[in-house]
Amino acid sequence: MTTNPEVTLAEPGLKFPEILIYRGYSAPVRIEADVHDLEVIGRIPPELNGAYFRNSADPTYPPLHGTDIFLNGDGMVHSVRLENGHADLKTRYVRTAKFELERKTRRAVFGAYRNPFTDAPEAAGTDSNTANTSMFWHHGKLYALKESGRPYELDPRTLETLGERDFNGTLKSQTFTAHPKLDPETGEAIAFAYNTAGVASDEIEIYTLDATGDIARTEKFKAPYCSMVHDFLVSRNHIAFVICPMVCDWERVKRGEPYWHWDATKKTMIGIIPRDEGVRAIRWYTCPVVAMETHTFNAWEESSAQGTRLHLDHFVTGSGWLSQFPDIHNPEAKEKPPFGERWSFDLADPTDHFEIRRLINHIGEMPVIDSRYAMKRARHFWFGTFNPAFGPMLPIGPKGPPFTCLGHFDEAADKLNFYYAGPDSAPEEPCFVPKNADAPEGEGWLLTMVGRRAENRTDLVILDALHLDRGPVAIVKFPCRVHEGFHGTFVPAGALGW
Ligand code: V55
Ligand code: FE
After folding, report:
1. pTM of the model
2. 314 alpha carbon – ligand 2 mean position (Å)
3. Within the chain, how many helices (H) and strands (E) appear?
4. Tens of pLDDT, residues 83-116
5. Domain that includes residue 40, residue range
6. Is residue 307 situated within a structural domain?
7. Rounded distance, CA 230 to CA 181, Å?
């Protein structure tokens, strides 16, 4: 549909379709920007010295097949450099092989999300990785990650793409998770890859990235079936995977159907692996309910004379998640919202039994903790959420209704606290930054991008992490919109060497 009746678009004019993921606040931005000294309301704490990096999916071209899902946009990284109360914005596309090829062809040549059978012939031999999901800082290097491809290293100062990486040949898989876990005690990162044998593969590899930043240990196991494994959990002594009925089937993929489908006749399974013994000691539990883990807060152990209890703190939904993927037994099914849950396993119990309880009685997602407390018991939990007490839901977007609030749960005090961003404002994933390396747990700031939907503009909002309801300490105003994103990380200037 053209909005000006005088104009008839000549095929193949470049035009994004009139569907949700290409319109309104979700529309492709496609601008690579540098804004020096952003407007600041309030005061950016001078201790906040470093850069916030985050990733988003910002499509460069209209989809090859007329429609697409929001997970498939091209990786566009946003960085906000914070220094002495000043803030500078930079946005750059990740120069993936896909991006470079489509820039040459001047149109989309890759088809549906992860489905090579829907690609145009020009795409043959080129990887479809969009590098659009998260940012990973490890051993002095910055990577853009996507679970269906290998890491892309970026220059943290310029956001220039330095290239696809396999950690000096130590990564054998063509895939690598967007959710590696840093071990604050050892400095290692624990990561994994799934679909390691290609489309619809049920193979998973677990990696330990050591002090050199390369993979020092690889372990391999087979999942009960091929499922989307978007996140995982790591405690001091265990690694846990939740295998859920978001399934990939080779025959369906070959027929050009969506890469994932929800099949609630399959069981949700939890695989628990002792970190020292590794996969030969893997133990599988069957979940009593059909559930899908969305994202994880943390995993931790509690030891007593009775033995060890392993707690998995994560957001869980009772349906398929990411509504673009079909429910094959119930096409009309509505996606259920995720809630924060604690799944507790008595490791001495030889049965399948484990305890499920709701940790946070609010719909939520995008969980974070103070990362210094990863793998042990954490007290403070932050997440994106809704709280109808503060205002109505915002109009639905391609990812569902956007958050209107950030939440903070202080488990020790059993208190919930909220930041409400205002009507027409949508906070995104929070990012916790401690006041300094020795500050007590939770003492620091919570950073979030906030979509100012009526103004079609974005702000970076900085909150006191333990007092969200006091409102922003600073609002860093962008003169433009940056695309809605997924995951980010803050890297202190000292670590960046700046
Ligand atoms: C997710 C995001 C992805 C993806 C698979 O947030 C799962 C969940 C942004 O890409 O490819
Ligand atoms: Fe994620």
Report:
1. 0.97
2. 12
3. 3, 32
4. 999 999 999 999 999 999 999 999 999 999 999 9
5. 20-496
6. yes
7. 13
